[in-house]
Design a protein that fits this description.
The chain has a domain of about 80 residues. Helix content is about 80%, strand content about 0%. It binds fe (ii) ion (2 copies). One fe (ii) ion (FE2) binds next to helix 3 and helix 4.
């Protein structure tokens, strides 16, 4: 099952950033599938660790683009990134403590956790930094 489908609004017009957006969506969909199919919690945990690492480096890339462009919303966008990393870390901790209830929370929250940032903060970044051809 596909949790998050790619949407044009997820594209910033910066190829390296867009490539990572696609990869992150793929990774989230994969871990979601493993949860639905009751995969071994250790496998899910290691997928989540990979996602956490990829998201951290993705945020760093975006922040670099923002700084280079002197983007006005940099501080707020960076704060939101930090908030998102805290949120996923909390979900991962919950899952580690109790895979059964953690799984339910992840299944409910992962899609929003991801898509809301893409369609708000990242979309505004697109308006400023993306190519508009
Ligand atoms: Fe992003
Ligand atoms: Fe972002």
């Amino acid at each position: 099952m596909t949790l998050i489908k790619w949407q044009a609004s997820f594209s910033l017009g910066i190829p390296s950033v867009d490539h990572e957006h696609r990869e992150l969506i793929g990774a989230i969909n994969t871990v979601y599938d493993s949860m639905i199919n009751n995969a071994d919690p250790a496998i899910i945990e290691s997928c989540l660790e990979d996602i956490y690492a990829d998201v951290s480096s993705h945020f760093a890339l975006e922040e670099r683009h923002m700084r280079e462009a002197g983007y006005g919303e940099y501080e707020a966008h960076k704060e939101e990134h930090e908030e998102l990393l805290d949120q996923i870390r909390n979900m991962m901790d919950l899952f580690e403590e109790n895979p059964d209830s953690g799984r339910i929370i992840l299944q409910q929250e992962l899609s929003d956790w991801f898509s809301v940032h893409f369609s708000t903060f990242d979309a505004r970044l697109h308006d400023k930094l993306g190519d508009h051809h």
